[in-house]
Specification:
This protein is α/β, with parallel strands linked by helices and about 240 residues long. The chain has two domains: about 1-25 and about 75-115 and about 160-239, Rossmann fold (3-Layer(aba) Sandwich); about 30-70 and about 115-155, SIR2/SIRT2 'Small Domain', CATH 3.30.1600.10. Helix content is about 30%, strand content about 20%. It has nine helices and nine strands. The chain has helices at about 20-25, 40-45, 50-55, 55-70, 75-85, 100-105, 160-175, 195-200, 225-235, and strands at about 10-15, 90-95, 110, 115-120, 130, 150-155, 175-180, 205, 220. The strands form two sheets. It has a six-stranded parallel β-sheet with strand order 3-2-1-7-8-9, sandwiched between helices. Strands 5-4-6 form a three-stranded antiparallel β-sheet, with helices on one face. The longest helix has 16 residues, at about 55-70. The protein is elongated, with a radius of gyration of 18 Å.
Amino acid sequence: MSAALDIRDFERVVFFTGAGMSAESGVPTYRGKGGIWKSYDYQNCACQEAFERDPEYVWEFHNYRRGLVSKCAPNLGHQLITRCQQQLPSVRVVTQNIDGLHQAAGSVDVLELHGSLWRVHCEACGWSEEDHAAPVLALRCPACGDAYKRPGIVWFGDPLNEAVIREVADALAACDLLVSIGTSAVVYPAAQMPLIAKRGGATLVEINPEDTPISHAYDHHLRTTATEGLAALCAGLDP
């Protein structure tokens, strides 16, 4: 990356974050070394069919995930993104992560492509709430009293929320700087979304220790961790 690139030179910034963003907080990644899907089969615990077949086992897995994430705190990278929101004209955060660490760091209006580990809802009656319990012990919906609560995340095979997709697309089309951080670029449709910013003429920066399938589309590459890459990009911000 050019040493002259300074995030303060841009008016409309979008941070697009993936599992690598939270890896330094101790949140397990999914496909990398030690990834969670090396140990668990999503067909048994992270799809609608599994939930309909055995909701209590699915909840056992998601309570395990809640327990892991509840012990994690935002890292310097999350904090730097929040600092950008506080100091720059327009900063949006788009994340594939479900851990809520951007919000815990103080970021606002976070667009969660894959939902949140901390939201639950009932498909039978429409009830929903934020629930940060780890674990969730009462698994039945308190409104209708019968159906199981469902974790508010996008499972394998689920469609993304159309309203969220539209808002993300609008933010990407309007930005003049896109910073992609820790994304594998193998999960669709999220993998291709940064190209919306490319078509709109934005400058694209990729922060990732490794190349990804769409690295060629980026103007600048920081082959380092999320925190180190963001620290370099945001060096000119007020502390």
